[in-house]
Structure formats: structure tokens, C-alpha cells
Amino acid sequence: MTQFNYSLSAIVAGICLSVLFLGNSGGAAANDNFYTGAPSTGGGTEATCSTCHRGGTYGEPALTVLFAEQGSTEFNALTSYVPGQTYQVSIKVGFTGAEPAGYGFQAQFLTDSTALRAGTATATGGVQVSAGGAARQYVEHNSVSNGGDFAFAWTAPEVGTGPVNLYAVGNLVNRARGTGGDNGSTSPTIVALTEGNLSSVATVAAITGRLYPNPAGARSRVQVEVDVKQSGSHRLTVRDATGRLLTTAQLELSSGGQVIPLMAENFSTGLYTVLLTGSDSRFVGRLVVR
Known about the structure:
Blueprint: H1 2-21, E1 54-55, E2 62-69, E3 80-81, E4 86-94, E5 102-111, E6 120-122, E7 127-131, E8 137-141, E9 149-155, E10 164-173, E11 180-184, E12 189-195, E13 205-206, E14 208-212, E15 221-228, E16 232-239, E17 245-253, E18 256-263, E19 270-277, E20 281-289
Parallel strand pairs: 1-11, 3-12, 13-20
Antiparallel strand pairs: 2-4, 4-9, 5-8, 5-10, 6-9, 7-8, 10-11, 10-12, 14-15, 15-18, 16-17, 16-19, 19-20
């Protein structure tokens, strides 16, 4: 029994050292190491940063998560999301003991009922998005940060997705070679978001429109026919059934009827979400390619 315990400790230590040498200072998920404490794709739950990063004097990482709506610079706590809306997400990793020499984090959005990827994250400076199994996306630092402030964009999933959870963990490190003397989250910070109703959001109006032809052939020239409420900048995006972004375009549109060409020649058979978003209005369409 003693020999077994020793071997298990050696295995854990070896894993942590291997993780270190793989370059996790540049993001664990980039090296297929997932530590958000969320439900895992194979059952059970993922580990957290404290699996390897422990023994420090910085205390449990304290995470603050805030959101700003598209076009706003005002960050607030969020309890519900608007389907298709893009948010700026701010994650601040704080310390509860001594001040660390560096900071890191990892986070992902999952559906509450099925633990599948929810929405699409987009990296900004100091942050990267790494792929995981089952089309998951992990947002994390791309190098050890001198400060604990991280930000990225998140486009909420489509209508009917239901409740979504953000799982986030933080890491406080001493920048020494090794994982000892650090403090990683022992459990995730979970932000639960319910699905908001588009019609209940006063600042967001539905744009009337349709996709034609729909269903479409694999080499069809699809038209997005919409009645734009207000002139101005609009963003057109197309995502596949897993939420992967296939195409995006920034358009200056006049008010009134518009016909926007959408090339489907590179789309394989499947279901796609077409989203046209203005400053205070949006159109969401479902395109079937056969």
C-alpha cells in the first residue's frame, strides 16, 4: 500500500512537470490540458489549476466576472443573455494573500442541460482561444500576465439554447520554474445565465427578413432579404451547427429593403445560423443546405 501511494504521488508530480514543460505558461488548453472544473466531455468533471499549482502564499484566487453589451463600455454583472448578442467579457483574477508575481486564467461557456459548447468566444490582446474535444472552446491567457485583468468577446448562442454556465478559474504564480509555490483555483467560479427573450429587450428590435432559397443547394447563391430599421453599420455572420464562425462581414446599410448576397458554395450539408446585427436590431435566420 505504501508503494502504491508513493507511485501515485510520483505520477501526479510527473504530470505536473510534464504540463509545465509543455509550456502552460502560454495557456494550458493550448497543450490539451483543461482545468475549468466544468463537466468533462467523458463524464465527471475537469480538474482545476490547483491540481498542480499549489503551496503558495497568495491565497485562493478571487475572480470577478463582468459583461458589457456590444457597443457599450459599461461592465456589469449579467444574469441573462440575449441570443446572438456579442458581449465583452472581463475576468479579473485577484489574490487573497500575498501579491503574486503573475496571473493566468482559463474559462469556457457550456449549456446547462447538455454541457455542450455555448456561443463563440473571440480572442483579444493577451488572451487566446484553444479548441477542446466535442467542439469546445477554452479561453485563456497566452502568456503569464503581470496583472490579473483579462478580456475577450463572446457571442451568445442562438435562440432556444436555454441556460448557459460560464466556468472560470484563476492562477496566481511566482514565475519560478515549477508549479510549487503557486495558488490555483480549487473550484471554478460559475456564472449562470438564463436565456433572455428578444422581444423583452427594448433596445433590440427584430429585423424582418428571410433567406432565399431555403433549403439551398451546396453551390447556391443565397440571398438575405431584410427590411433594415435604421441606416448604419451592420455585422453579418454565418455559423455552423456547432457554433463555428464560417464567415463575417461588416456592412453599411441604408434603411428599408435590402438584398444581401450570401455565397453557400463552401458550405457542406447541414444547418447554419445567419445573423445580421445592427446597433439596436437584429435578424436571425436558419439556413438548410442540402
